[in-house]
Amino acid sequence: MANEERTKRIRILIVCVLVCILIYVGLESNFFYRTERQINFKLNGKVQEDNGYYTGDLDWGIFEGEGVYTYYAGKTLSGHWKNGFLEGFGHGTYKSLGKYSGEFHHSLRNGQGTFTWNNGDLYIGEWKKDAISGAGKITWANGDKYTGEFKKNQIHGKGKLKLASDKTYTGQYLSNEIQGEGKYTYTSVGKYTGNFLDSKRSGQGTFIWKNGDMYVGKWKDDAITGNGKVSFKNGDVLKGTFKAGKLIKGAYHTVTSKAIYTLTLDSGKVVSVKIKYSNGTMYSGEYAKNAFNGEGTIIYKNGDKYSGYLKNGIKQGEGYYKWKDGSKYEGQWKNDKMNGKGVYYYSSKIKAYKLDGKFKDNKPNGNCDYYKSRNESYTTKWKNGKCIKLVE
């Protein structure tokens, strides 16, 4: 009796162990879950789950073969299923978004595929883990096109953008923004080659207009800002510091049939100029209120030279004038003529040294000290350029 009781207990223990093993294997292999889904499918013609339902081929509760999974949120996946996942070529519809046709891996868009948005936009290219990643091409409904690299549903890397307006960009992108080195062509205007920041021309860059004009220098927020140089097709040159496309400080050089001009600007205004006229006369000096105002130097075509103050282009105030023959005047001017107190130095060809006194309309007028030599002088009185009296 004892042996029979022992044998009975051993058999019960073995049965319990086997049952436990079967339960463990069933749990590990999803046997019970698969069985439940298989029964569900037999009764309802579909496998019902929390987020949606599946219709199609099954291998004892596992999606295997052709089938469709419909999510309650509005997404639908259809194609060939393997071990419970959509694998290989398939289709996806996304409510309020669009449709996908292409490769899947583990039910995620992965590999080559095409997505058509409901608004007409179209993407053809590579996918990775359900996101646009890799090389591809997107065509927007408005006609704009981009061909190049993508990363996690964003334009990222090298690519080419062609807008319906005929503008074209080729270069670097960072998270949907034009960033880094690139080339932007404006069909009706010109082309830019250089740096970009947040889709705006920023940093060092070159712009060549269609008419041949060219700018080389700094940019900021899509505008010429910073140090740079504009070379015009006709030979004119702007060089200096720019702000929002305007020369703030620097120089403008231009050549016309009448003269060669070099204008110096500060705070956006011309402050001095250098001019060489076609007849040989040259001017260099201050410029204000659209005229020669301030200190300046004029070298005339005959060799005469004036250095001093000017007002509206005429000699006014203190100034120095030297004639070609060597004679010179230093003193006051008014209305472009010697007027006021001054000193006139005679040419070496004249047997006299200088005349120190008052002048009127380019002539000595009034009391003057006449120097026959450096050491010999007389006090004289003049009228309209003639000495009328020797003052004792």
Automatic annotation (TrEMBL):
Keyword annotations for this protein, in alphabetical order, are: Kinase, Membrane, Repeat, Transferase, Transmembrane, Transmembrane helix
Q: Which InterPro entries does this one have?
A: MORN (IPR003409)
Task: Check the record and name the Gene3D superfamilies matching this protein.
Answer: Histone H3 K4-specific methyltransferase SET7/9 N-terminal domain
Chain segments annotated as transmembrane: 12-33
Q: Does the keyword Coiled coil apply?
A: no
Q: Which Pfam families match?
A: MORN
Question: GO MF annotations for this entry?
Answer: kinase activity
Under the heading PANTHER family, the entry gives: RADIAL SPOKE HEAD 1 HOMOLOG
Protein name, UniProt field: Phosphatidylinositol-4-phosphate 5-kinase
